[in-house]
Design brief:
By secondary structure, this protein is α/β, with parallel strands linked by helices. It is 46% helix and 12% strand. The protein contains four helices and three strands; from the N terminus they run αβαβααβ. It has helices at residues 6-34, 57-77, 103-111, 121-131, and strands at residues 37-42, 82-89, 143-146. It has a three-stranded parallel beta sheet with strand order 1-2-3, with helices on both faces. Helix 1 (6-34) packs parallel to helix 2. The chain is globular and about 50 Å long. The two termini are 26 Å apart.
Length: 153
Protein backbone atom coordinates (compact mmCIF):
# COMPACT_ATOMS: atom_id res chain seq x y z
CA UNK A 1 0.00 0.00 0.00
CA UNK A 2 2.89 2.38 0.71
CA UNK A 3 3.91 2.31 -2.95
CA UNK A 4 0.38 2.34 -4.34
CA UNK A 5 -0.21 5.21 -6.78
CA UNK A 6 -3.00 7.51 -5.61
CA UNK A 7 -4.58 7.13 -9.06
CA UNK A 8 -5.02 3.38 -8.48
CA UNK A 9 -6.66 4.08 -5.11
CA UNK A 10 -9.05 6.51 -6.79
CA UNK A 11 -9.81 4.07 -9.62
CA UNK A 12 -10.62 1.09 -7.40
CA UNK A 13 -12.57 3.12 -4.83
CA UNK A 14 -14.33 4.90 -7.69
CA UNK A 15 -15.60 1.63 -9.15
CA UNK A 16 -16.23 -0.37 -5.97
CA UNK A 17 -17.48 2.31 -3.60
CA UNK A 18 -18.46 5.46 -5.46
CA UNK A 19 -20.24 3.33 -8.08
CA UNK A 20 -22.50 1.91 -5.34
CA UNK A 21 -23.26 5.39 -4.02
CA UNK A 22 -24.17 6.69 -7.49
CA UNK A 23 -26.58 3.78 -8.02
CA UNK A 24 -28.19 4.33 -4.63
CA UNK A 25 -28.54 8.06 -5.29
CA UNK A 26 -30.16 7.37 -8.68
CA UNK A 27 -32.63 4.80 -7.32
CA UNK A 28 -33.70 6.27 -4.00
CA UNK A 29 -35.85 9.16 -5.27
CA UNK A 30 -38.13 6.64 -7.03
CA UNK A 31 -38.13 4.24 -4.10
CA UNK A 32 -38.77 7.02 -1.59
CA UNK A 33 -41.72 8.32 -3.64
CA UNK A 34 -43.32 4.87 -3.73
CA UNK A 35 -42.43 4.13 -0.07
CA UNK A 36 -40.88 0.82 -1.05
CA UNK A 37 -37.60 -0.49 -2.35
CA UNK A 38 -34.83 -3.06 -2.18
CA UNK A 39 -31.14 -2.26 -2.59
CA UNK A 40 -28.63 -5.11 -2.68
CA UNK A 41 -24.97 -4.16 -2.82
CA UNK A 42 -22.10 -6.48 -3.67
CA UNK A 43 -19.31 -6.47 -1.10
CA UNK A 44 -16.67 -9.18 -0.67
CA UNK A 45 -15.34 -11.37 2.10
CA UNK A 46 -12.15 -9.36 1.52
CA UNK A 47 -13.85 -6.59 3.52
CA UNK A 48 -13.82 -8.84 6.60
CA UNK A 49 -10.28 -10.05 6.04
CA UNK A 50 -8.44 -6.80 5.38
CA UNK A 51 -8.02 -7.71 1.75
CA UNK A 52 -7.52 -11.40 2.25
CA UNK A 53 -4.01 -11.57 0.81
CA UNK A 54 -0.91 -9.45 0.42
CA UNK A 55 -1.40 -7.05 -2.45
CA UNK A 56 -5.19 -7.08 -2.05
CA UNK A 57 -5.58 -4.50 0.73
CA UNK A 58 -6.99 -1.82 -1.59
CA UNK A 59 -9.76 -4.11 -2.86
CA UNK A 60 -10.69 -5.19 0.68
CA UNK A 61 -10.68 -1.60 1.88
CA UNK A 62 -13.00 -0.49 -0.92
CA UNK A 63 -15.38 -3.37 -0.18
CA UNK A 64 -15.28 -2.53 3.55
CA UNK A 65 -16.56 0.88 2.48
CA UNK A 66 -19.44 -0.88 0.72
CA UNK A 67 -20.26 -2.65 4.00
CA UNK A 68 -20.31 0.66 5.91
CA UNK A 69 -22.36 2.32 3.15
CA UNK A 70 -24.86 -0.56 3.25
CA UNK A 71 -25.34 -0.34 7.00
CA UNK A 72 -25.59 3.45 7.04
CA UNK A 73 -28.03 3.62 4.13
CA UNK A 74 -30.19 0.93 5.75
CA UNK A 75 -30.61 3.23 8.76
CA UNK A 76 -31.23 6.27 6.58
CA UNK A 77 -33.69 4.69 4.15
CA UNK A 78 -35.60 2.37 6.47
CA UNK A 79 -38.18 5.05 7.31
CA UNK A 80 -39.13 4.96 3.62
CA UNK A 81 -39.60 1.16 3.69
CA UNK A 82 -36.42 0.69 1.65
CA UNK A 83 -34.18 -2.19 2.69
CA UNK A 84 -30.45 -2.08 2.02
CA UNK A 85 -28.33 -5.22 2.29
CA UNK A 86 -25.11 -6.58 0.89
CA UNK A 87 -23.94 -9.92 -0.39
CA UNK A 88 -20.34 -10.76 0.35
CA UNK A 89 -19.01 -13.50 -1.92
CA UNK A 90 -15.75 -15.37 -1.73
CA UNK A 91 -13.68 -16.02 -4.84
CA UNK A 92 -15.79 -16.95 -7.84
CA UNK A 93 -14.78 -17.98 -11.34
CA UNK A 94 -15.84 -14.90 -13.33
CA UNK A 95 -14.48 -12.86 -16.22
CA UNK A 96 -12.69 -10.66 -13.68
CA UNK A 97 -10.88 -13.57 -11.99
CA UNK A 98 -10.38 -15.86 -15.00
CA UNK A 99 -6.74 -14.91 -15.56
CA UNK A 100 -5.87 -15.07 -11.86
CA UNK A 101 -7.41 -18.46 -11.18
CA UNK A 102 -4.79 -20.85 -12.43
CA UNK A 103 -5.29 -24.48 -11.44
CA UNK A 104 -2.74 -24.03 -8.66
CA UNK A 105 -4.54 -20.96 -7.26
CA UNK A 106 -7.94 -22.67 -7.48
CA UNK A 107 -6.60 -25.65 -5.55
CA UNK A 108 -5.02 -23.44 -2.89
CA UNK A 109 -8.22 -21.38 -2.46
CA UNK A 110 -10.64 -24.32 -2.41
CA UNK A 111 -8.44 -26.10 0.16
CA UNK A 112 -9.29 -23.26 2.60
CA UNK A 113 -13.05 -23.40 1.93
CA UNK A 114 -14.88 -25.88 4.17
CA UNK A 115 -17.41 -26.70 1.41
CA UNK A 116 -14.49 -27.40 -0.94
CA UNK A 117 -15.37 -25.31 -4.02
CA UNK A 118 -15.32 -21.80 -5.39
CA UNK A 119 -18.37 -19.58 -5.16
CA UNK A 120 -20.69 -20.13 -8.12
CA UNK A 121 -22.27 -17.10 -9.74
CA UNK A 122 -25.65 -18.76 -9.09
CA UNK A 123 -24.91 -18.84 -5.33
CA UNK A 124 -24.69 -15.04 -5.35
CA UNK A 125 -27.60 -14.54 -7.77
CA UNK A 126 -29.93 -16.69 -5.66
CA UNK A 127 -29.21 -14.65 -2.53
CA UNK A 128 -29.59 -11.34 -4.38
CA UNK A 129 -32.94 -12.55 -5.74
CA UNK A 130 -34.10 -13.42 -2.24
CA UNK A 131 -32.98 -10.11 -0.73
CA UNK A 132 -34.76 -8.23 -3.53
CA UNK A 133 -38.00 -10.12 -2.88
CA UNK A 134 -40.89 -9.50 -0.50
CA UNK A 135 -39.77 -12.56 1.49
CA UNK A 136 -36.87 -10.42 2.75
CA UNK A 137 -39.01 -7.40 3.62
CA UNK A 138 -37.80 -7.26 7.24
CA UNK A 139 -34.11 -7.86 6.56
CA UNK A 140 -32.08 -4.68 6.31
CA UNK A 141 -28.57 -3.52 7.08
CA UNK A 142 -26.96 -6.94 6.93
CA UNK A 143 -24.02 -8.31 5.02
CA UNK A 144 -24.40 -11.97 4.17
CA UNK A 145 -21.34 -13.98 3.20
CA UNK A 146 -21.58 -16.43 0.31
CA UNK A 147 -18.32 -18.12 1.04
CA UNK A 148 -18.71 -21.84 1.70
CA UNK A 149 -17.66 -21.23 5.30
CA UNK A 150 -14.27 -19.62 4.64
CA UNK A 151 -14.81 -16.86 7.19
CA UNK A 152 -15.11 -19.54 9.88
CA UNK A 153 -11.57 -20.76 9.24
Amino acid sequence: MAELPVEEWQRVCGVNLSGMLYCIKAATPFMTAQKHGRIVNIASISAARGGGSIGNVLYGTSKAGVVALTMGMARELGRHQITVNAVSPAVAATKMTRDLLTEEVKNRVTARIPLGRLTAVEDVADLVTFLASERASFISGVVIPVDGGILTT
